[in-house]
TrEMBL record:
The keyword Transport applies. It comes from Lactiplantibacillus brownii. It comes from the Bacteria. The keyword Oxidoreductase does not apply. The chain crosses the membrane at residues 293-315, 349-372, 461-482. This is ABC transporter substrate-binding protein/permease. Pfam families: BPD_transp_1 (PF00528), SBP_bac_3 (PF00497). SMART domains: PBPb. Keywords: Amino-acid transport, Cell membrane, Membrane, Signal, Transmembrane, Transmembrane helix, Transport. It is a multi-pass membrane protein. Residues 291-482 form the ABC transmembrane type-1 domain. Its main location: membrane.
């Protein structure tokens, strides 16, 4: 099954749950209106990670990229039986459980297995699919490997934290087990001979093998429990009425054998369609969309980050009474805290943490998080620039009758900006690349789009080369523009 949410996200959930009022939890337990809420809202938001064919993956449908697969079919069936519309929200698998617990999604259908550990945090329906595990290898190694015991002295790969990863660690001897975050990365590592094999679910293994003639699948022979090889739908804890209603749909799907009769064959058709044209030019619209969102995030973050930076810099330099001292300490604490925590954690906290109180879209959350992060660094650039301006400039302005505010606005800041322009330009270039972090919450920037193309085409290297070139074009162009204005400032 897919990987469990990592230690980092587990810690984040713990923090978020601590800030949720206990009275709300007791109220939910006392009155379960989960089914009524969904039907009243008229929309059922399904969270999924579309990198796991044939469960869920991206495909080109009528010229547009869409999320398809057997899990999507199940989601559509559930929504239809509830009498509501289905809305699919894409994000990394590690983020799904946090998204469910913070209300970003109403349910998870993403090849998730109902393990005892997960049942402590979410409610599961009856299982809708029972699978197994294979190991994908390079076809040239078919005679060399037979099962998990054949990899002694070699390296076996699996998704980090997944049940097959844990099984490989426990049930193999003298074998190095390497974890990665996505199936496409694992297949790329396999084809570049960094891995000898990749453990994954049988349907996924069959999907990759049927669409890549260089790969083959062998039995894993892992000793797995039923819960570790089955899939179920996850809902928030306490959603008893909703789970009971959806269980009727799940039972009907199993009774009519819809997964094998309809849903898997339909997914197979999309898998074949994906490999009809795998040229990178065929996906120019996806890359163009990625460039658009990357630029939107970068430009907005630079603008707001600059404003935040000015405020923080002035606050850090404030001198005098108690209020100014408090502002100085607060600004210093903010800068140190932001610079001392990873931007990825900040993005997740804004999206999921603020999601407890305000339901912010992923793009907005990404811009807010990157702006707040950029502001801390810009504040130090500006503070350094202000300090670099000779004190005589301030004294001259004051002697002309300018107030402190006018002196700062018309004399000091313009000169400081000229001095720190290279540093601000470097921050802009850095933000173009750092915008890729927001792909973890489902923002369709360049990294996200490249993962879509990799999922569509089963080609690992080509999409990476394309986005490397695109990032270089963006950063090089921005660098030339910034250098032009820097020369203009020097001449002035």
């Amino acid at each position: 099954m897919k990987k469990k949410y990592g230690l980092l996200l587990a810690m984040l959930v713990a923090v978020l749950m601590m800030v949720v009022p206990l009275s709300n939890q007791h109220a939910q337990a006392a009155t379960d209106d989960s089914l009524e809420k969904i039907q009243k809202k008229g929309v059922l938001v399904m969270g999924t990670s579309p990198d796991y064919p044939p469960y869920e993956f991206q495909a080109t449908v009528n010229g547009k990229s869409a999320i398809v697969g057997m899990d999507v079919k199940i989601g559509q069936k559930v929504a239809k039986d509830l009498g509501v519309k289905l809305k699919i929200k894409s994000m990394s698998f590690d983020s799904l459980l946090v998204a469910l617990q913070t209300g970003k999604v109403d349910m998870i259908i993403s090849g998730m297995n109902p393990t005892p550990a997960r049942r402590k945090n979410v409610a599961f329906t009856h299982t809708y699919y029972q699978g197994g595990y294979d190991i994908v290898i390079n076809k040239t190694d078919t005679g060399k490997y037979k099962n998990k015991d054949s990899f002694k002295g070699g390296t076996l790969g699996a998704q980090t934290g997944s049940t097959q990863y844990n099984a490989a660690k426990k049930q193999t001897k003298n074998t190095k087990v390497k974890g990665m975050t996505s199936q496409s990365d694992l297949i790329l590592a396999l084809q570049s001979h960094k891995l000898a094999g990749v453990a994954m679910e049988k349907p996924s293994a069959e999907a990759y093998v049927s669409n890549n003639k260089q790969l083959a699948a062998i039995p894993s022979d892992f000793n797995m429990s039923a819960s570790a090889t089955s899939s179920a739908i996850a809902f928030r804890k306490g959603s008893t009425s909703l789970v009971n209603k959806v269980n009727k749909t799940v039972d009907q799907i199993k009774k009519d054998n819809l997964v094998k009769k309809d849903y898997l064959p339909a997914a197979g058709k999309y898998l074949k369609t994906n490999t009809v044209n795998t040229s990178m030019g065929h996906y120019w619209k996806a890359f163009l969309t990625g460039i658009e969102y990357t630029l939107i995030i970068t430009v907005c973050s630079v603008f707001f980050g600059f404003i935040i930076g000015i405020v923080l810099a002035l606050a850090r330099m404030a001198k005098g009474g108690v209020l100014k001292t408090a502002l100085r300490w607060l600004a210093t604490a903010y800068v140190e805290f932001i610079r001392g925590t990873p931007m990825m954690v900040q993005v997740m906290f804004v999206y999921f943490g603020l999601g407890l109180f305000v339901n912010l879209p992923a793009l907005t959350s990404g811009i807010i998080a990157i702006s707040l992060n950029s502001g801390a660094y810009v504040a130090e650039y500006i503070r350094g620039g202000i300090n670099s301006v000779d004190d005589g400039q301030t004294e001259a302005a004051r002697s002309l009758g300018m107030s402190n505010g006018e002196t700062m606005r018309f004399v000091v800041l313009p000169q400081a900006l000229k001095n720190i322009w290279p540093s601000l330009g470097n921050e802009f270039i850095t933000l173009i690349k750092d915008s890729s972090i927001v792909s973890i919450i489902g923002v369709t920037e360049l990294i996200y789009q490249s993962n879509i193309v990799r999922s569509d085409t089963y080609r690992g290297v080509a999409p990476i080369v394309v986005i490397m070139v695109l990032y270089f074009i963006l950063t090089f162009t921005a660098s030339r523009i910034l250098n032009y204005f820097e020369r203009k400032m020097q001449h002035d």
